[in-house]
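My hope is that you will study the protein record below before we discuss the fold together.
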Amino acid sequence: MYKRLISIGLSLILLATACNYPGFVRSPRQISAGDLRATLIAQSVLLTQTADAGFPAQPGAPATAAPAINTPDPGQIATPAGEPFSPAAPATPTPGALPIAYTYTAQAGDTLSAVALRFGIAPEEIVSTQALDPAGFIPEGTLLGIPNTLENVESAAWLLPDSEVVNSPSAVDFDLEAFVQQAGGYLSGYVEYLDGSTYTGAEIVRRVANEASINPRLLLSILEFQSGWVLGEPDSQAARISPIGFDVPGRTGLYQELVMTGSHLGIGYYGWRTGSLLEFRFADKTTARLSPEINPGTAALQVLFARLSNRAAWQEALYGAQNLAALHNAMFGDAWLRAAAMGPLIPQGLQLNGLELPFAPGERWGFTGGPHLSWLSGSARGAIDFSPVTAQAACAVSRAWATAVAPGVVVRAAHNTVVLDLDGDGLEQTGWVIFYFHLAGYEMIAQGSRVDQDARLGHPSCEGGASTGTHVHLARKYNGEWIAVDGPVPFILSGWRVIAGERSYQGELVKDDLVVTANPGGPSSSIIVR
């Protein structure tokens, strides 16, 4: 809902979705692999011809539009406050049954198992003219023949690119503080007391963007869309207390509302990415099925706004005449052009090698937590825990040190967190970073430090959140996206490969014929020595 929209006066050209390619009329279970492969070959020719003609080849993705007249530079407000905001509505397919058989074009980061889960079929029912690695990423643009039995799925129209949802390379050149001050809205004068310090509105947005790895542009456009905080003033006391609209007792104020926003965006994003989230629930408790044609960024927005509204309000917010994506593009310029310039978030063949365990050689540590959430709810199951064996009290600050798993630059060191940038460019949004949590404030390394492998970063502790014992929490991000342990990019430390268990915190470290089993109690079977 728009509480107070102050427009940017942008002439918006909204992007239409590309067509799908249904090609069969028989029952899905009667379609042979030969039929599908023959059709895929024909589709390959068709898609190549349409791409050459300037049309997109990605089903469900927006077409590339010409730049809008008077489009502002990203991060700039183009016209004086107070002008009416009236973007055109995006083309929206009517929810309903998908075609009986479907040709799907793989997106960057797709896996065979995730695509199968989204379409509700077994992986072996998917065919392609190319050989598919069952454990790896499917090359972007690969055509997949899929027998499709889904009905009554939600809209397949894409809303924003993935890079506009996660805190990705597209956010590197965005001056958050300058934008907020130039906008001059309620947010520019807002302050909040957190962790013993006073934070400005922009600082709170920055903190949540870093912690949850959500693009700060998106946090701002959602905040403006829901309550008018960025470009104007909230029109009620309720909008001041609960600016996004969660209105959860005990969790009011900007920081808590944005934390919940990040969590729900992540639930949609990573749930869609892995195929583990197939349905979402509206505020009125009705449910809907995610379309398998959308991208993770669209799933994120669909899930968040379902949490905040009933179906009718959800449809209006995401696909109505004055929708969130249109406002986002008006505030920050064309998101799809930024995405096209940076390329896919997850490139084909992505790997991470040469990491060492996060402690010194010869020390005894416990593998106390198998794969679990990287950061709160709404993140990939990509984190593991190690606890030093020092015979100290359960939650004492350890005298042992957590060390750098690789050389790099410390790009963030605050709130019991150290983020190590492995590509050395000093940016958390680009390339590989390693996330350490529960490090004590005492003797923690300073932000900006350039370190070698095995450099001391901080002492494991219980500080920084709920914890029953001293440990260090370790996770990975690439281009701002949390990377799951049980996906195509293995997590290997000193030759030990992390294997996820059926449930969070379960799992193993495997090296040749050696196995170390995660156990929070620290028995001998969980001890590892580097």
Notes: The chain has three domains: 28-147, 162-342, 364-529. DSSP finds eleven helices and 21 strands in the chain. The two ends are 55 Å apart (CA to CA).
